[in-house]
Amino acid sequence: MARILIIDDEKAIRSALRDILEYEGYQVEEASDGEQGLESVKQNDYDVVLCDIKMPKIEGLDLLLKAGEMGKSAQFIMISAFGNVENAVEATKRGAFDFIQKPPDLNRLLVTVRNAIEKRALVSVTKVLQKKVYKLNEIVGESDSIKRVKDTCDRVGPTEARVMITGPNGSGKEMVAKRLHEKSNRAQMPLVEVNCAAIPSELIESELFGHEKGAFTSAIKQRIGKFEQADGGTLFLDEIGDMSLSAQAKVLRALQESKITRVGGDKEIKVNVRVFAATNKDLKSEISEGRFREDLYHRLNVIPIHVPPLSSRPDDIPLLVEKFLNDIADEYGASTKTVLGDAMDYLKTLPWTGNVRELRNVVERLVIMCGEEITLDDVQMFASPVL
To answer: At what positions is 4-aspartylphosphate found (predicted)?
Structure first.
C-alpha cells in the first residue's frame, strides 16, 4: 500500500485530500506546517508528499529542497492557491514531480498521484540495479598494485584526461574503464564500448564514425557511429592495438579536432567525447614494427594504468573468490557456498593464465559441481579441466 503525506496549514484541505486518498486505498498521514512536515519526511519513508507552497515556519519550496538534500525518494506534488507559471517552474527546478492548483481537480489529482507512485517505484528499482551494476564492476583486491590502480582511477576519473589501460587478457581492463567513467563528470552520460579486435578491419571505420546511405554496397541506410553515440560521454576503445592504420588516422583526427566525418559523407560533425583505450599488446613494439601510429599513442597515453596479472597478486584471490561466490549465489538464487582453507590455499598457487576471468569461470564451475563446502579435492578436480 502506497504511503502518502499531506503537508498543509489548512485543516479543511488536509481532511478533504485525506478522505479522497484513503477512499482509493492509500495510507495517509498529515502535517499542519512545514516544520512538522519536514520532521515527518526525515523520520519516515513516503511514496508521495502533497505539499502546500505557502505555509508557516518552512515554506513548501524550501521543504522540497531540504528533502532532496536528504536524498529522499518521495515524489513531491506541490499544491497552491497561487497557480502561476513562476511557482510551477520553480517547483519543477527544485525536483517536484508536478504542480496542482487549489482547489484540485479530483481526476487530475488521482492520476498525478498514481503517476508519482509509479515513478517512485521506478526510481527505487533503478537504485537497486545501479548498486548491482556497481557490484559487478567493482575492482576487488587489497594488494599494493590494485590499490594503485583504484587510487589512480579515483584521481583521474573526475578530470578530462585520456587514459591508456594495459594488462593481459582477463585481468580486468574493462572494469578499470568503467570505474573511471563512474568517477567522472560524465557518469550520467553513456559509456560506449568498442572491441576493436572483434570488428573486421573493413568495417571498423563505419563502426566508429558511422556511414551515409549508399556509402558502400550493404549501406542501405544511414548509421550513427560510436563516436556520435558517445557524444557528451565516454568512448572505450578496447584492444586498440588491433585497429587498422586507416582507422587510427581517423581516430587521431577526431581527437585533435573533436570532429568526425561519416564514411561516404563530407559533413563534419562535432563530438564531445572522452576516450579510454585498452590493449594487451606492447604498443611501443607495435610502433617500431609500423603497426601502430606513434602520434596516436601519445594522444591516448596521457595517463597510463597497468592492470597486473592475477598471478602477481595471489593474496587478492580469497577476496575475488568470496565476491564471485556471492555474485553467483545471487545470480542462481541459491545459498552462498564456502571454500575450505586448504582449497583456498591451493587456488592461490595456480598460474591463472586467464587471470580474473579464468578465476571467475572456475568458481562458477565449483559452485555448480560441488557441495555446500568446496574441498581441496573439489578444487584439484575441477580447477584445471582437460583441454
So the answer is: 52
Cβ(224)–Cβ(260) under 8 Å?
A: no
Residue 387 in domain:
no
Q: Which amino acid is at 242?
A: D
Task: Mention every residue, 6+ apart, whose C-beta is less than 8 A from residue 241.
Answer: 196, 279, 280, 281, 283, 286, 291, 292
Contact assessment for residue 171 and residue 310, using Cβ atoms and an 8 Å cutoff: yes
Position 1, amino acid: M
Q: How many domains does the chain have?
A: 3
DSSP 341: H
What 3-state class would DSSP assign to 387? coil
Note down the domain range covering 338: 311-382
The residue ranges of DSSP E strands in the chain, in sequence order, are: 3-7, 27-31, 48-52, 75-80, 98-101, 163-166, 191-195, 234-238, 259-261, 268-270, 274-279, 303-306, 338-339, 373-374
Percent of the chain past pLDDT 70, that is, above it, reads 95
DSSP string, 122-156: HHHHHHHHHHHHHHHT-----SHHHHHHHHHHHHH
Q: What is the pTM of this model?
A: 0.68
Burial label, 103 (beta-carbon count in 10 A; 0-12, 13-18, 19+): exposed
Burial classification of residue 165, based on how many CB atoms lie within 10 Å of its CB (0-12 exposed, 13-18 middle, 19 or more buried): buried
Give per-residue pLDDT as tens, 329-376.
988 888 999 999 999 999 999 999 999 999 999 999 999 999 999 999
Give domain status of residue 269, yes or no: yes
Of 304, 307, 353, nearest to 141 (Cα)?
307
The answer to whether residues 66 and 115 belong to one domain is: yes
